[in-house]
Request: fold
Amino acid sequence: MRKSLTCTVCPLSCDVVLEIGENNEILSLTGNKCARGKVYATKEHTAPERTLTTTVKTKGGSLPLLPVRSDQPIPKPMLKKAMEATADLVVDAPVKMGDIVIENFLDLGVNLVASRDLDRAH
Amino acid sequence: MKRSDVDVAVIGGGPAGLAAALAARNEGASKVLIIERNHELGGILQQCIHHGFGLHRFKAELTGPEYAQRFINLVKETDIEVLLETMVLEVRDDRTIYAVNSTDGMLEIGAKAVVLAMGCRERTRGALRIPGKRPAGIFSAGTAQRYLNIDGYIPGKKAVILGSGDIGLIMARRLALEGAQVEAVVEILPYAAGLARNVVQCLEDFDIPLILQSTVVQIHGDDRLEAVTIAKVDENWKPIPGTEQKIECDTLLLSVGLIPENELSREAGVALDPITNGPKVDDTLMTSVPGVFACGNVLHVHDLVDNVSKEAERAGAFAGRYALQQQADAARRVKVEAGENIRYVVPHEISLDKPVEFFMRVQRPEQNVVLDLGGLRTVKKPSVRPSEMLNITLTEEMLSKLEGDTLTVRIVPQKEDGVDA
Ligand code: SF4
Reply:
């Protein structure tokens, strides 16, 4: 099977073409203009990852929402579940950037952390 | 009226203003003031909750709020004064600033140097002249981003996004993640205007179609938007009859460009560049009004905040020197011109006595070209696109070889040899 990906590592945006075997293994990889493209395309084929960024509700904060992120990328298929898991979350103010909102988020070995400081409402 | 005097007054507390204020302070200006209209510092970054900022600056992929917080924390460590919820009404050409807020009323601020860092705003539907009624449900992408990420309101359930710039792409993903249906991103150009990485991670990941060479030609709905009609366009961007397609939606986001916010600059008598819509500046980022500097998106619209910070640091440092009267007048000045396939270059004028970083954009995409700065430096580029700003530095030594009174920047086809990579 043939699969084509856009390398997103640099602005050149090479179209990388993968030839995929029966056991999902990569038979050939062409179109990348550099080695980083190979690393990217291999990862993107075998286990694509994305960083989750979203907001959670706050209690007692100067703003109704706190932006949060996963401190490491998570498997792409987990994005939806991750959004559901943050939908009803409420965080108490004050918060400092980097504070852990959920440790070992969804057992993925990553933390959900605050993207900014948030003071208490005055 | 309350009167105060400062060395450097920075108008705007977004990424440009923060970096400029810090640099001015570091340069030795003792009284530095940031005047910000919002209730907090950080500017537009506070609503850009996605990651990808700071790759050059911090060698990390930060979210917008994280990038802002790092600078805000640095400012907090200094004695830089910050006036929040304060609106600047006027900047005079003698660098007197009139501002207003609810605690002090009217303020008169005398500044030895002023840094303009007001940023930009979005082009609106009015600027596009889409026919149809005026139902609710039509937002600029940035406004929708604010509703969603700061205030916590989802703008609609079924959206079409006009414009494939990065803000449009980022909002497509954000809406999809929050459970809205994004029917399509419609782009008038034959290629996506935003970064490839955003096309992959914001559209392809969520199976959102990107419809190229098309635009919205009709708005439907009375109270609330009910649908839009899109159509293919010809090479002159004219809709082609017979290609219309109606898409049901309750929300239309417009991501159709940004315009530097220069009302204050104009009234101060600052000369503007009709292409960038920002001030004309020299290599110290000083405008045509002595002692008034400009940086960030008020000067020209950037695509990387890292470049905004860098440019702002330069502006802030020179503003600091100006305030301390340490800036000597240049002996020779040279005009910078946009040549073949260059839409604009900043700065507009240079003085050859210090290294200069040039920022520029091309007019159209091209591949395998050479960026040529007046023959003083040539750089091979595998591809150039209008959406990706180019920046390149000329050293004093390179500049010393310049003859004549103009430096022309151009894009030329690649030859086999004779250029550095
Ligand atoms: S393959 Fe290499 S050159 Fe091509 S886009 Fe990826 S990183 Fe850039």
Remarks:
- The first strand of chain B starts at residue 2 and ends at 11.
- The mean pLDDT of chain B is 94.
